[in-house]
Amino acid sequence: MATPAFNDDAMTPPSPVRSQPFEPNISPQPSRSSSSAVSRSLRYTLEGSSAARTLVISPTASSVSQSSGFSEVTRTEIERLAKNKCWACMSGITEACHVIPKEDKAIDFWAEIGLINFNLRSTANGIALCPNCHTEFDRAYEPGIVFIPVDVEYFIDFELMDQERRSGDSSLRRQVPTSEMYRNHLVEKQMIGPEAAHGLYRPVFLSTDCLPVAVGERLEAFGLTQPKEWHGAPLASLRRAFTALACSKIYVVGDGLVANLRTLFDLYFKPTLANPVNLGGQSRPALPAERLFPGGDDNTHPIKRRKLDTLRDEDAEEGNWKPQQYDVRKSVLYLEPEWVLGPSSTAEDAVHRFASLFAQS
Question: Cα–Cα distance between 131 and 141 in angstroms, integer?
């Protein structure tokens, strides 16, 4: 057996390669399809000041997955409506985010009592945020960012009138303001001009961890607390606002706004004769009979609301579906869509609509 020949050069270990310092890619438009994009830098410069701070943003897996429920056209439209800037911090790196996330366990209940009048997969349930603001926005128990309609009293008055409308007929479905109704109300109150396309919402930073220190300490100076337009459904923003009521820093918005939000929350969810909310069979203190039925009419019965049965996926697969059952979540997800580009749209229509985004990519 021949002895293998060894080359002296082959036995010499390779010279160590000096690692190069990491230089983050600061391209203004990184690839949207890459979930492992490199860190990006955003620079905030206070007008009139030479000082500048840099914020490094890394998209998280959660933020990437949260936007996956939108179609590509819907995601692009959400970013176009926000002028391709983060709605909260105005940075130039954005992704389309759900306002009411797919994992929200309250969707069925909100739909049952008539608080969702929009398609959860449409632009009405979307907002453009940078990855850092998206992370703060999606913190379930202590959200760092929420946004609230500037006129919560409008929603209080609307619900009171709607409860009066429904008080004489238990079969009537609750009505809640749409984005167009809210916008028209603000125009009538001269809070916005007739040229405004959407209603006003107040951004609230309950945490400034997503911002550079210089920015977080001077939110007003950077204009980040000013009300701004948002195109979506007002009830979606209120869902986030109600969650923030349990946040330890909620009083940063002021006592009056907190009180109005709590009042509206009670109007929507507290069971009364004018607002018979199904609590899913859970017990609650019973009111005296004379308060429930003044006059003592034995033929009077409390208003009963049939509990909606949610069709489980396994039931559908096994063929156990019953006609009286339906999936509330699916009925909400597939409400009549708001077309961005309808069946009659052409490629030229798409180019004209998204030209500003194409120019920046």
Answer: 19
pLDDT tens, residue by residue, 7-16: 444 444 445 4
State which residues form the domain around 321.
Answer: 306-336
Listed range (46-60, 126-140, 214-228) with the worst mean pLDDT: 46-60
**Most confident segment among 49-63, 149-163, 305-319, 321-335:** 149-163
In this prediction the pTM is: 0.64
Tokens, residue 361: 């990519």
The torsion region of residue 113 among left (phi > 0), alpha (psi -120 to 50) and beta comes to: alpha
| Same domain, residue pair 327 and 223 | no
Does 326 lie in the same domain as 209? no
Does residue 29 lie within any of the structural domains? Answer: no
Q: What b/e readout covers 5-22, taking b as 16+ CB neighbours within 10 angstroms?
A: eeeeeeeeeeeeeeeeee
